[in-house]
Amino acid sequence: MTDFSEPLVDRPDDAVLFHRGVRPVRAVEFLVDVHALAGALPDAGWVVNLCRDRYAFAVTFAAAVLRRQVSLLTGDQSVAGLAQLAAQYPGAYVAVDEPLDGPMPVFSVGSRHQHVPRPRNPDRIPVAQLAAIVFTSGSTGAPVAHPKLWGALVDRSRAAGEQFGFDAAAPSAIIGTVPPRHMYGFELTVLLPLHAAAGSWCGPAFFPGDIHAALRATPEPRVLVTTPLQVRALLHADGGLPVIAVAISATAPLDLALAAAAEARWHAPMLEIFGATEVGSIASRRTVEGDAWTTYPRVVIEAGDDAIVSAPHAGPTALADWIEALDGRRFRLLGRRTDLVKLGGRRASLSGLNRILTALDGVADGAFVVPEDLEHRSSARLTAVVVAPRRTPGSILAELRGQVDPLFLPRRVICVDRLPRNELGKLPRQALLALVAQHDPAA
What pTM did the predictor assign? Predict the structure, then answer.
């Protein structure tokens, strides 16, 4: 008889799933915590998991799965954002491990000290059960909701373990600098330890000092799961890193020079993950070895006018990217559909323009901004927003003239103290447009 379910955790009882400071949390302990919390959760269909501590987040997510509650994973914790979720998902509540005032009921997640017997049989969850709804970051517009079935989440976790060669004989310690409620952090730091030979660090790991401390507190082999923005910050910080086996980056393209510098400094391979909130992680590459990506096990991508990806319990789904198939598992990315800017009959890559801008001497961060009415207003032009404390807008514009097609030169360069990047280093489009409007109401 075919079993249409997958275990909540399919690691040995004594396997370390999480690292809470110096204390490792083994699978049997995790399951006791999950069952204790599951019995205390409110009766509801939806839960907005805003726990900041990675372990509290993981326990809350797993407890919600047991209760057949759907976790709503969003990076927008504003009152307006939560109010919108409350309207879209009636009866939803927020789970937190820190005080929060908001427009929906709040459930505080804390230690459950009551005795809960260990389940006699492994918890099995139907593969077709809706486990989570993950919202995009809004970097290309309004956040979009994407449902995730339990079977798909489990298969992606196992596939990642296979892709990166995690070995049960020497389980890896994952130090994730990315928050757990975003798809990348959710997959690699919360789901992966439940189904692959790895344990996830649950302490602070955002600033360079925190990352150093986390690496020193975890056993080898260590895997650093991070972003291009944090790779750059770590390289600019003094000194190297404690020994790592590999570094993995996602959320934005990793510059080849940055990847090469990281490998030289850290003496470890620098890998990238290709994925999207719609489908999760689906391919990887070692950046310095070229532009070919290799799909995860059991992932199939069909190239054509639309690139279609499918995997167990997920798909087929159209990607927002153009690809060129190289062989059965390898492909080359040709560009993102939303990345193309058309102006005066010509085309340019927005990410390409941004790479030119941020490569200028003295520019710490920057982005080109496309106005909403670019295709409808003949006089509309791009704007550049930069963080460059020692440079003037005029000098930046003058340098861009030698590298950018005149049609795509920014009409204005705006210097700011910082860009409105979220926790993953992405730039929500609406926040970027608001920043431009604040400095240039006529833009």
Answer: 0.83
